[in-house]
Write a structure and sequence with these properties.
The complex is a heterodimer. Chain A is α/β, with parallel strands linked by helices. Chain A has 26 helices and 9 strands. Among the domains of chain A are: about 100 residues, Orthogonal Bundle (Fumarate Reductase Iron-sulfur Protein, Chain B, domain 2), CATH 1.10.1060; about 130 residues, Rossmann fold (3-Layer(aba) Sandwich). Classes of the chains: A alpha/beta, B alpha+beta.
Chain lengths: ~450, ~500
């Protein structure tokens, strides 16, 4: 794509980076058919290609974006499905982040939007504050009809809470010690469902790893980054890099384990967010999704609960990190029957704060995803991101658990509460494994 | 009010305002393509939701003398994307709303789809139903349309590779606005039991009229599906020299004549296979032989690599057949064997495994970034499965590529008697000189292979007239006469595939 920035504009490193990315787009349009918002609206401006054009115009013109540009860019999920499909590998993730940052600084949103965004940016990254807000919300839930429409989605989607906010500490390996890892305990996830960290820690301990929750580590910065608050995101990243580098330089770390894939994508990209920081690159290189790490060290299943599991690929996992095989391989090796969800390249509509800021689009995507999941024979849904768990849990008629909870269970941990009482599928034999129905084909 | 305005107003009245799009962004995007000849913005884009709405559009187009251009999912990259063959046509985007899988018969092994159904959609639906059947896919975009590809005579790699040949029974809105059901679907007033299971029914086989033509708008097709084998094991042999293509072709032919190997063979050259993983390191200059050798070394591949696969009950059951391939391709001692599991970790060969397995994948799309600027078009001649002829065509085309400073990038898809040669011309579309050279390269190859008695199997929109000009006059006249009979006012894609 041709661009027309002035040399003065290109002196700004952000514009220079955007310019390089914009010029790499050649408008093939493969991205359009895999973009959830385009598929729903068929509006070119709701497609990655259209948004790239909008960003070009917005940045070339400079000054305040117009409301139409903001409307379409806000509707981007940052699911990055377009990046998987793009033939020329346009670096869309960094372009949309640059655009969001520009909007955040150059555009004055209506006051209700400003309040909503400020509140989310202040509360979500702080688990204790978020938990307090959730409790408060539970108290006034019955009165949510009296709240401004902008806030109602917050109350509508509130799941059952299982908070467990971890303090900095070391969880020692069981048996022979194989290594030492840090766990990103996360922010919102701890307030919503502490069972995920507990399961992750148990399964790592069981496989011989010390697990440290590092002093000073907190929110990865993802939530604020995708709201255009680059400085807040960078500050969060710096805190984490500092906290984990102290561990690296102290007792050492084999990996930084992340069990919320949205956070994993951001941590793996710390080298870009903190471009002049060598430590950030070190941490980014150490970051592993929990399934990626477990697949690397090998799982030791103790029990094989033969449930049929629909594995939902979080976008941040399949498109952001390109981690698709490890969770499936691990679940299969643990004895589960794993089925894919039709249209698995599509976002469920969670997308960080998206389902709070764009509730209508998020609901359409959530219902679409749930219908696809419900069409499978799965007894349980597994995924690797708390946002997806909450979103899918609202619409799907099956229990939703984190992959780490199933792996913990399969290796000797407790059965996830949501699965108690669910009977395993009939045991498979070699015959049923290898030979499809005789009336389909003979081999 | 122009004729176009009046036509669009009538369509908006009949189908609703949402069915008509004239926004600047839409016009610009639907006119884009990747070919040397430039963009062709349409006058508008329409979104019908049913065959009846397509009929309404075609009838209105006849009244207002409007040229329509139907598209499915619009992924015909390299051959026209979703742009019309001329600017100013009204694009009929069937994919937006007519994207339903109407039926899947698990026992008889067929699906009935609308034009917007993509390989990915049908694949996902089959997986959801238990993964007992597989759809043959291309190695191109997963969002490519099943009907569009079949009608353009596209192909895949499994035993059901012939996409047009795997269709059975169509519903077509003719240029007159009449609806035609082909094959057994022609039985009047009945639900035809054999519509999607029998190709040879009473009367002439009309289905072929709607492939690579402009006689009607196909709104529904039956597509045959193969039972998914429990085990799929691929094998790959890589050869060091350009001239080894002849040996490979000679070795593949008997395996396909007897159908000992159920898949087609992918015989890709170095730049085609490695190019999807990299960009040209010598650009803006043409790729040199030294650079080519260095790239081959990096990827562990030779000048030509052949891939095929067996289907069976288990991996172990297929092992003897794989061993037989090792003996067969190992005869001359030139080939290096690459086993299935090693190939699965090589992106260029993983594409082949996915294609043999009926899994849509995006790996091969990386080819399109070999040069910047997004230009690419495809020259699609074929040769008999004769090693001498294959090498002769290779020599001719290689020289023409070099002459025009374009990098030779070819995948030969080999069957029993015929191999289609997918020649990719990757060029910088932002560079007028490269566009000119790509165009000249295409035209010169078309003329050169025609002198060897070789025609093309598919063609980019830019070259439909060129190729119709290569056909005998009686062929062009017959095509024109059929056009006159089925679309007398010439409202459906006039000029497409050179048929006026």
């Amino acid at each position: 794509m041709r661009t027309n920035f002035t040399s003065a504009q290109l002196a700004d490193p952000a514009i220079a980076e955007a310019n390089d990315i914009l010029q790499s787009c050649v408008h093939y349009g493969f991205c359009t058919n895999t973009c959830p918002t385009y598929v729903l609206t068929r509006d070119e401006n709701d497609s990655p290609r259209g948004r790239i054009d909008l960003i070009r115009g917005m940045l070339e013109r400079g000054g305040s974006p117009d409301a139409r540009e903001v409307h379409h860019l806000d509707r981007c999920l940052s699911c990055l499905s377009c990046m998987t499909t793009c033939a020329v590998k346009v670096d869309y993730v960094h372009l949309i982040d640059l655009a969001r940052s520009h909007i955040e600084t150059a555009y004055r949103r209506p006051w209700a939007d400003r309040m909503m965004r400020a509140m989310l940016a202040a509360v979500l990254p702080r688990p204790r504050l978020f938990l307090a807000a959730l409790h408060l919300a539970a108290l006034v839930r019955g009165l949510s009809g009296l709240l401004p429409a902008r806030l109602r989605p917050l109350f509508a989607m509130m799941p059952d809470l299982h908070p467990d906010i971890l303090v900095p500490q070391l969880f020692r390996a069981e048996g022979a010690r194989r290594g030492r890892v840090a766990l990103l305990a996360g922010c919102a996830q701890q307030a919503l469902d502490g069972r995920i960290n507990a399961a992750t820690i148990r399964v790592l301990q069981r496989h011989g790893y010390d697990v440290v929750v590092a002093d000073g580590a907190g929110c990865c910065g993802s939530l604020t980054l995708h709201m255009g608050r680059q400085a807040a995101a960078a500050a969060a990243a710096r805190r984490n890099v500092g906290a984990w580098m102290r561990e690296v330089r102290g007792a050492g770390l084999d990996a930084v384990i992340v069990n919320a894939s949205g956070c994993g994508t951001t941590v793996k990209d710390y080298g870009h967010l903190l471009a002049d920081d060598d430590d950030a690159r070190t941490i980014a290189a150490l970051a592993r999704d929990v399934t990626e790490f477990l697949a690397g060290i090998g799982l030791r299943p103790a029990a094989a609960p033969a449930l049929t599991v629909a594995y939902h690929d979080p976008c941040s996992m399949q498109h952001g990190q390109r981690v698709t095989r490890p969770p499936r391989d691990l679940l299969r090796s643990a004895g589960f029957k794993v089925v894919d969800v039709p249209e698995k390249h599509f976002c469920c509509g969670s997308a960080g704060t998206y389902n709070l800021l764009q509730p209508a689009m998020a609901e359409a995507l959530g219902r679409r995803k749930a219908a696809h999941i419900d069409s499978t024979a799965a007894q349980v849904i597994a995924t690797g991101n708390i946002g997806c768990m909450v979103q899918i849990g609202r619409y799907a008629g099956r229990p939703v658990v984190h992959t780490a909870e199933l792996l913990d269970w399969a290796t000797g941990g407790p059965c996830p509460a949501a699965l108690v009482g669910i009977e395993p599928a009939p045991a498979r034999t070699d015959a049923t494994l290898h030979v499809p129905d005789a009336d389909t084909g003979i081999w | 009010m122009t004729q176009t305005d009046a036509f669009l107003a009538e369509i908006a009245d009949a189908l609703g305002a949402d069915a008509v799009n004239r926004s600047d962004e839409t016009i610009a995007r639907y006119g884009e393509n990747t070919m040397p000849g430039g963009d062709r913005p349409p006058a508008a884009v329409l979104y019908p939701g049913s065959a009846a709405e397509v009929q309404a559009i075609v009838r209105a187009a006849n009244r207002h003398r409007i040229a329509l251009y139907p598209i499915g999912t619009g992924n015909n990259i390299g051959l026209g994307s979703r742009s019309a063959n001329l600017a100013g046509f009204v694009v009929v985007d069937l994919g937006r709303r007519m994207n339903r899988i109407l039926d899947i018969d698990d026992r008889l092994g067929f699906a009935v789809v609308e034009p917007g159904v993509s390989y990915q959609m049908l694949h996902d639906e089959l997986a959801r139903r238990g993964d007992r059947l597989m759809v043959d896919v291309t190695s191109g975009p997963p969002q490519g349309g099943i009907i569009g590809n079949a009608l353009d005579k596209g192909a895949g790699y499994t035993p059901y590779f012939d996409h047009f040949g795997s269709t059975c029974g169509m519903e077509v809105v003719l240029g007159t606005g009449e609806v035609l059901r082909t094959g057994d679907g022609a039985l009047d007033g009945q639900d035809a039991a054999n519509w999607h299971v029998s190709k040879y029914s009473f009367g002439p086989i009309l289905d072929g009229l709607f492939a690579q033509s402009n006689y009607g708008i196909v709104t529904r097709v039956g597509i045959w599906l193969m039972p998914r084998p429990p085990a799929i094991r691929s094998f790959h042999f890589t050869y060091p020299d350009d001239a080894d293509l002849g040996e490979i072709v000679e070795l593949c032919r008997p395996l396909k004549l007897s159908n000992y190997v159920p898949t087609l063979f992918r015989v890709g050259n170095d730049v085609y296979l490695c190019g999807s993983e990299s960009v040209s390191p010598t650009y803006p200059h043409a790729f040199t032989d030294d650079a080519r050798r260095a790239m081959r070394d990096r990827h562990g591949l030779g000048s030509w690599t052949v891939s095929g696969a067996f289907y069976g009950a288990s991996d172990a059951a297929l092992e003897p057949q794989i061993e037989r391939m090792r003996v067969h391709f190992g005869r001359s001692g030139k080939a290096r064997y690459i086993p299935h599991d090693e190939a699965a970790a090589i992106p260029a060969l993983e594409v082949a495994i996915n294609a043999f397995s009926g899994h849509p994948s995006v790996g091969e799309l990386g080819l399109l970034k070999w040069r910047p600027g997004g230009g690419n078009t495809w020259f699609l001649p074929g040769t008999p499965m004769d090693g001498r002829i294959a090498n002769e065509v290779q020599d001719v085309c290689r020289q023409i590529y070099v002459q025009h400073g374009i990098d030779y990038m070819v995948m030969n898809v080999c069957g029993a008697r015929f191999a289609r040669g997918l020649h990719v011309l990757a060029f910088n579309r932002d560079d007028p000189d490269e566009r000119r050279r790509a165009d000249a390269c295409y035209r010169q190859m078309a003329e050169a292979v025609a002198r060897l008695g070789i025609f093309v199997g598919r063609a980019p929109l830019d070259y439909h007239d060129l190729h119709m000009g290569q056909a005998m006059p009686a062929f062009a006249q017959a095509c024109g006469a059929i056009k006159q009979a089925l679309d007398p006012n010439g409202v459906i894609a006039p000029g497409r595939y050179g048929i006026a």
